[in-house]
Every structure is written in structure tokens, then in C-alpha cells.
């Protein structure tokens, strides 16, 4: 089109015959002016005004660059606003067409450029659009260079994690015994298994190990014990706090029928499907997941979680058995207030505090969870800042409703498909989400911090 325009101008008098040059009067009459050219030929099909920094797409249509940036930001699509044909690569400014519009419509273009610079929304969209193009070009340049290094690093990290986990399980003989207790009915426990269960209550419970061994207390006898039996010989547990702690744990055993889990791996063995569901759900939507635990798993999961993250005020010198009993009581108003503030503002901090409390039991796993919680908090903050800076905070209720519907549908689909998923696949998904998610989130956080105004398509 530009070449045709130049030849038309050339034929109309700017480039006449060398042998028969026109006179001055004919030259002045045939010289075109901006009023003789239709503005429609140089207008944008989005704003219907003179093109400013005209950008030509692969389909041939021209648009103002700021109009194209606004369209890209609102539609999240790499396609022409007029014919909907997807463009290839990243659109560039048509230099010839820009120079032509600057010469023919100088005043109009200058006025429009000043208006664009004065509009913060348009300037922000142009900046985000240009950064998107820079990232696109950088990723294509380093595609072959960085892909192999990245995946080799990921493979190395996963291999190291797998070796650490396997060595931990193989070197720990107690785990196998605990797995037997949490999978074996309490009525079939032997005397040795009853003593092992008693020792798990804490160091204070080892004082009463010999009476249980001498009386050959098995699982059935354990279920028949009460406060009076524990107070009388041969048990002679005179400390009332000790008796209450043993009876509280015994009540849990009676309800569950097996030993309640005391760490992450035991919980995974007894609740394979729920552990996988909670691992992914806490990452995607921690508030809805904690609310789900409050409604459907209050005593076994939610209550210990709340007491761990928001502990009650303890006095100096308080015994371990008293702390054990406090974890079974209803939370105080102070605990509920602290929990609700963290629940609404920093839900991932609750998960990090829970993992921090288990550092002595799960050394490396707790650190992975803490790092992942910190990264997810940063990503959530970046998402809220993007909504606020782009004046889209009003769309937050609609996004929350869409998120709620998405989580409910995914949870329903998980409940239907769970019986058909092999256990090996579930274990792979579990360890993938537990150890590999922080690696992915680190890359996402770096992208958000380096280019906070760039929104991925």
C-alpha cells in the first residue's frame, strides 16, 4: 500500500518526465496537499482516528499501537481486533507508515501523542505490551539454550529428594512398626504394640511401661481400662494429668479403631486420598480447604491444626502432658481471633507455622513446605496488587465466585475418580506436589517480581 501511494504521488507530479519537465504553474497545481488525501486511509480501525505509531499485523491490518495494547490486555488474545486472525511473533511499528502519517497529519498526531502520554492506563498497557514482547523474544532466543539445563536441574533435584526420602524410610525401623499400629485394629494389638503406643504419648508415659508389660495388657484389655482401673494397682497412676492424657488418647483410639496418626507419613498411610486432596487444595485455595476441615474433619484434623498454629497461653514450666490435654480442648476466643485474622489475610502463614512446629519430626519436608508457603504468599500478594493497580478490584467478587465453582467441581471430580487411580500414580502426584512445587513457584515469583505489570496470556 505504501509503495502504491508513493508511485501515485510520483505520477501526479512529484516525479514527472525528465525530458519534458512541467512549468512552475503546472507543478504547483498538481502538487498534493494533506487536504487532498482521505483521512480514512490513515485511520485506525479501533479508535477511528489518525494512526499513532501504526502497527501492522500479519493479516495486513494497521492499528495504533496503544489501541492494540489495550485490546491485548483486555482480550488476552494474540489476534487481530478486526478479522480475528492470530498474529505471529510480536507486532512491530510500521516505520514507513509512521513517517507518512507524521508528515501528512503533524498536528493531529502530536496532539494524540500528548493525550496518550497523559493517560496512565494507556501508558501502563503499552509498557506491559512491550515487556510481553521482550519476554517473548528472550524466551525464543534462549529456548534451546536453557531448556536442557532447566530440565536436567529439575531431574537432579527430584533424584536427590527421592534418595533422601527412600534412605529415611529404609533406615527407620520405627516407621514400619507405627504403620502396623495405624493399620491394625486396636482389638488385635499385642502387649508389645500396646507398650509402643503408650511410649508415643511422651517421655512421661515411659514411667508406666513396666505395669503394662507385667499385666500383659493387649488391645482388648486396653479398651476396658478406665479412670478407676488406672488409679488402682498394679498401674497406680496417681497423677491426675497423666490419667487424663492416657484416657483422652484412649478415647481417640476407641473412636478410630486404630492408633491415630502422629506425623505426616502416618496420616498419608491412613488417609491416602485425603492427604493428596489436601496437599493440592491447600496450595490452590487454603481458605476453602481450612473451611472444609472445619465442617467435615473438625476433631481429628482442624482442632490440632488450630492449636498448633495458634497455641493457647502456656505458663513456664507447664508439663508435656498438660500441653497434650490442651490440644484436645476447645479453642479460646483469643485463639479464634488470632486464627481468623491469619485465615483471612495470611492463610499460607498458618501452613508455614504448622510445618515449623514439625521440624523435629520432618526435617527436610517441613522446610520444603515452609518455603512453598512463602512463595505462594508472594504470588497471592502480586495477584492482589495487579488487581488493585489496574483498577480491577471490583472484579474480585466475580473472580472469587469463579474460583469457588472451579474448586468445587475439581473436588467433586477428584472424589469420583479417586477409586480408579492406581496407588503408584497417587504417590507420584503426592511427592511431586510436595517437593517439586517450590521449584516451579520460585520461577513464577521471579517472573512476577521482575515484570510485575506483565500478565501472561
TrEMBL record:
Superkingdom as given in the UniProt entry? Eukaryota
Span-the-membrane segments of this chain are 148-170, 368-388, 408-434
Sorted alphabetically, the Gene Ontology cellular component annotations on this record are: endoplasmic reticulum membrane; nucleus
Reactions performed catalytically = S-ubiquitinyl-[E2 ubiquitin-conjugating enzyme]-L-cysteine + [acceptor protein]-L-lysine = [E2 ubiquitin-conjugating enzyme]-L-cysteine + N(6)-ubiquitinyl-[acceptor protein]-L-lysine
Top enzyme class of this protein? transferase
Question: Any idea which GO molecular function terms this record carries?
Answer: ubiquitin protein ligase activity; zinc ion binding
Q: Which is an annotated Pfam family here?
A: zf-C3HC4_4
Q: Which EC number(s) does UniProt give?
A: 2.3.2.27
* Keyword Endoplasmic reticulum among UniProt keywords: yes
What's a GO biological-process term for it?
proteasome-mediated ubiquitin-dependent protein catabolic process
The record's listing under SUPFAM superfamilies reads:
RING/U-box, SAM/Pointed domain
> What membrane topology term does the record carry?
Multi-pass membrane protein
Q: Where is the SAM domain?
A: 189-256
Name the keywords, alphabetized. Apoptosis, Endoplasmic reticulum, Glycoprotein, Membrane, Metal-binding, Transferase, Transmembrane, Transmembrane helix, Ubl conjugation, Zinc, Zinc-finger
According to the entry, every stretch annotated as the RING-type domain falls at 44-84
The subcellular location is: Endoplasmic reticulum membrane
Q: Which InterPro entries match?
A: SAM, SAM/pointed_sf, Znf_RING, Znf_RING/FYVE/PHD, Znf_RING_CS
Chain's role:
Membrane-bound E3 ubiquitin ligase that plays a role in several processes including apoptosis regulation or reticulum endoplasmic stress. Has anti-apoptotic activity, both for apoptosis triggered via death-receptors and via mitochondrial factors. Contributes to the dynamic control of IRE1/ERN1 signaling during ER stress by inducing BAX inhibitor 1/TMBIM6 proteasomal degradation. Promotes the activation of TGF-beta signaling by mediating the 'Lys-63'-linked ubiquitination of TGFBR1 which is critical to activate the pathway.
How is this protein organized at the quaternary level? Interacts with CASP8, BCL2 and BCL2L1 through SAM domain and also with HIP1, IFT57, ESRRBL1 and BCAP31. Interacts with NGFR; this interaction inhibits NF-kappa-B and JNK-related signaling pathways.
Protein's name according to its UniProt entry: Bifunctional apoptosis regulator
**Protein species of origin:** Cottoperca gobio
Which gene holds the coding sequence for this protein? LOC115004992
